[in-house]
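Quick check before the chapter quiz. The format below is the same one you will see on the exam, so make sure you can read both the input and the output lines.
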Amino acid sequence: MSRTPCAVAAIILVFGAAQGDTPAARPRAADLGLKIGILPPGPLDAITDVAGVTVFLAAIEATEEAVYNSLFKATTTTGNGHTIEALPIERTAQTLKEHRAIR
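Here is the expected output.
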């Protein structure tokens, strides 16, 4: 599981952009007076700054693997008069390699 989480990050960015909220437009929990957790924020004020927070990396990697499994294990499906073709595995893998999402 040494792949970079670029593909997952791209998907998260796309879905985040689709929501229409920008980080500047939404108040942070701390700005609203909510204290989350018992540890102080790290130097980047991000959850991944806190020492020992490797569970989030594991969650990112698990999500990335689930996305790849759903892409590569999907089959052509027909229903209600519509057919959705499965992704061409070789071409999809080549595209992901070209964008350095996989090796």
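If your answer matched, good. The radius of gyration is 19 Å.
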